[in-house]
Amino acid sequence: MIPVPGFEGRRVAVFGLGRSGITAARALQAGGAEPVLWDDGVSGRMQAEAEGFNVEDLTSADWSGFDALVLSPGAPLTHPKPHWTVEKAHEAGVPVIGDVELFARALDALPSDKRPRVVAITGTNGKSTTTALIAFVLKQAGLKVHMGGNIGIGVLALPAPTPEAVYVIEVSSYQLDLTTAFKPDVAILTNISPDHLDRHGGMEGYVKAKSRIFQAQSGNDLALIGVDEHWGQGLSDAVEARGEKVIRIATARTPEDLPREGWRAAPGLLLTGEREIDLTAARSLPGRHNAQNAAFAYATALALGLSHEQALAGVVSFPGLAHRMEAVGRLGGVRFINDSKGTNADAAYQALASYPKTFWIAGGVPKAGGIEPLRPLFGHIAKAYLIGQAADAFAVTLGDVPHVVAHTIERAVQLAAEDAAKTGGDQVVLLSPACASFDQFPDFEVRGEAFRAAVLALGATAESDH
Predict the structure, then answer these.
(1) How far apart are CA 344 and CA 339, in angstroms?
(2) What band does 465 get if pLDDT is binned at 50, 70 and 90?
(3) What's the mean pLDDT in 120-133?
(4) How far is 112 from 53, CA to CA, in rounded Å?
(5) What is the value of pTM for the model shown?
(6) Which three-class secondary structure string do you get for the chain?
């Protein structure tokens, strides 16, 4: 745990007692604060009471007695409307912050020679893979690495800081909205495409939230920014104009399509301006998006003092993440790829672009725009197998592209496996739903495990992509 100083003897309201909330309360208490906890759910309040915390109904509390409100990232800060705790905090002049801000303040309280280094990653897609990849590369080189945040362990539950440590932190737009002092040594924006627009009041608010990862950086820090979209290009220009060091990383489907300047990545290749790096051995990082993830990891490793050889060795040996372009089985010449984390069209676009032809399983709770952005890649679809709420709407969008409404993952896997086997040769069955999972599954992980189970039930041999 990371104790949070600065609130000694003072009352701090904590709303939302999921993973980040209860951890924040523990960290505040360890730093000498008097956290006052509340949650709309009974189970969260019961857990807090069982740990001996002061649980108080914040709807009737005296907010003038609080020094801060620590808000769960799941509660809206501004849109569609501010959470009732936010309104009460604003009325009382109480600052609203989150667990990442508490983490930043805990590090800021340390003498400069005791401060660990921090790498932070955000983006619409790819941030979890990039986070895990960077942590893996640094660990392989012998560094003391703590990984968490929006992936795995809540940031304040990570081990207490030591000077030699490196924190590799995934941060969401919700978490960034609650920060002011967060100052990563290396800040990474993988990409931006429309997502969570209801929570940020539109695309402008979403981009502004993502940009907060750079807000406290100085000229000694490094910003790594994906510039395939105009939002990333604009942010890279703005960050550079403030005097910060920026590396822009662009991608293309083939090396011939890459721009001539800057850092550039294509499947199997990274060009840094000084080196041409062969990434074909990185079998767990297929496609242009993963080439860009590799570039982020390589650049971070160099910035933290690793050699070219150390950085490249870590990248090519990365085993990959579950539910993110994960090879889960093989049946004859048919490989089954689990990209259940592909919960929007942009993520599915990257997955489809990684293979010349796929038997594609898609559907669930659709995002705004559906799969219309995937139209340029319809030629990559040998046949589509549609599931969940989006099935009928996706069928209309696909039009003449071969497809069938399979309804369930189990049925989709069976049909796709049969069709792929009949085609002969090496084929790919790809689950990349372009949808949320909540119509049929609690989350994308459960959906991915259902896919894995269905694949193995056919008699496929479990495989690793490394």
Answers:
(1) 11
(2) very low
(3) 92
(4) 33
(5) 0.81
(6) CCCCCCCCCCEEEEECCCHHHHHHHHHHHHCCCEEEEECCCHHHHHHHHHCCCEECCCCCCCHHHEEEEEECCCCCCCCCCCCHHHHHHHHCCCCEECHHHHHHHHHHCCCHHHCCEEEEEECCCCHHHHHHHHHHHHHHCCCEEEEEECCCCCHHHCCCCCCCEEEEEECCHHHHCCCCCCCCCEEEECCCCCCCHHHHCCHHHHHHHHHHHHCCCCCCCEEEEECCCHHHHHHHHHHHHCCCEEEEEEECCCHHHCCCCCEEEECCEEECCCCEEECCCCCCCCHHHHHHHHHHHHHHHHHCCCCHHHHHHHHHCCCCECCECEEEEEECCEEEEECCCCCCHHHHHHHHHCCCCEEEEEECEECCCCCHHHHHHHHHEEEEEEECCCHHHHHHHHCCCCEEEEECHHHHHHHHHHHHHHHCCCEEEEECCCEECCCCCCCHHHHHHHHHHHHHHCCCECCCCC
The reported pLDDT for the residue numbered 294 is 96
pLDDT in tens, 65-112: 999 999 999 899 999 999 999 999 999 999 999 999 999 999 999 999
